[in-house]
Specification:
The structure is a homodimer. Chain A is of the alpha/beta class. Chain A folds into two domains: about 10-55, Helicase, Ruva Protein, domain 3 (Orthogonal Bundle); about 75-170, Dna Topoisomerase Vi A Subunit, Chain: A, domain 2 (3-Layer(aba) Sandwich). Chain A is about 40% helix and about 10% strand. Chain A has helices spanning about 10-15, 25-35, 40-55, 90-100, 125-135, 150-165, 190-195; strands spanning about 60, 65, 85-90, 105-110, 140-145, 170. In chain A, the strands form two sheets. Chain A has a four-stranded parallel β-sheet with strand order 4-3-5-6. Chain A has a two-stranded antiparallel ribbon with strand order 1-2. In chain A, helix 4 links the parallel strand 3 (about 85-90) and strand 4. In chain A, helix 1 crosses helix 2 (about 25-35) and helix 2 (about 25-35) packs across helix 3 (about 40-55). At the A-B interface, helix 1, helix 2, helix 3, strand 2 and helix 4 of A face helix 1, helix 2, helix 3, strand 2 and helix 4 of B. Chains A, B: Belongs to the RecR family.
């Protein structure tokens, strides 16, 4: 926003909104104006939702999920298989897998992946909690749902080593052609992985 | 967000964020997670900015601008020309013109444009205020900065008629080739307007 067309309060609102992922300076202005125009129907409820979240949201001490209770809704869900643990890097991955809805197991959120370049080592991830859960909860399968980047794969290998010797199967998500994907647009790595992991029809 | 991975508070936060312009369901989830992770450095300041805005922001009774004071910062700015009034449809247009920074005049925000199809008639716009200001404030020029849609042009003609007979020049923004624009990509209407309004070099 330009200088001197309104008080600093509106400028500050725009600056804060611009820090949300997906909003740039221009869309933050549009969002701010939208919020100001819909003060009663949008800004007020959102302010209340923020206050609610600020007062209530906690990180689950068992799995690292974000929720308003600890242990979280997933950890206390009696209908989920207890023998299977899905390891994800981030809460957003947990949400994504739940949207897919293939499997109703419990999760373990690492809080990132190993990344030597960014200075993220094993101590920065929730790994001791994972080993402890595998030990205590009689987990039979650990599914590593960690993406296909170099850092994610390094993390997957590290966890596999960590769990070696324990009576637990460690699996990872399949690599291959994404549903709806055209071969033409896929990189060589994906195509090679899909070819190697080809399945009988 | 899927069912039963967290309390309804997070779901509600996502739903409200998804109502911001520029954010869809997916980016609203990302924004919610970002806000939750940055509770202290982003969500808390944003909640405070909302409370601040909710308590303070008002519509200027003189020009229709949005600000924390009434009359607004623009109307009380002594360095702006008083003889020129720029008529805009929306506060966002006022902001856009101030960013361009070509002219330091006062504004008049109509709150929309005439739109028979949407049921927006002259009584729904801040037109009586405009006539009154032209009369009282010794305005010499009214610049109609109203866009080039059919509705905006209808509104421009309506205002021109309204101010006819008064000692005031009514002008509108030039139509033409946008700066950086390629002729190839421009529509016929813009090209015709630019050709008709050609200027000597």
């Amino acid at each position: 926003m330009p200088r001197a067309v309104a008080g600093p309060e509106i400028e500050r609102l725009i600056q804060l909104l611009a820090r949300l992922p997906g909003l740039g300076p221009r869309s933050a202005r549009r969002a701010a104006l939208h919020l100001i125009k819909k003060r009663e129907t949008l800004m007020q409820p959102l302010a209340a939702a923020f206050d609610d979240a600020l007062g209530k949201i906690v990180t689950c001490r068992v799995c690292g999920n974000i929720d308003v209770r600890d242990p979280c809704t997933v950890c206390t869900d009696a209908e989920r298989e207890v023998g299977t643990l899905i390891v994800v890097a981030d809460v957003s991955d947990l949400w994504a897998l739940e949207r897919a809805g293939t499997i109703r197991a419990k999760y373990h959120v690492l809080g990132g992946v190993l990344s030597p370049l960014d200075g993220i080592g094993p101590d920065d991830l929730n790994l001791s909690g994972l080993v402890q859960r595998v030990h205590q909860d009689e987990v039979r399968e650990v599914i590593l749902a960690l993406g296909a980047t170099v850092d994610a794969q390094t993390t997957a290998h590290y966890i596999t080593d960590l769990l070696r010797g324990r009576d637990v199967a460690v699996t990872r998500l399949a690599h291959g052609v994404p549903v709806g994907g055209e071969l033409d647009y896929l990189d060589e790595g994906t195509l090679s992985a899909a070819m190697r992991a080809r399945t009988p029809l």
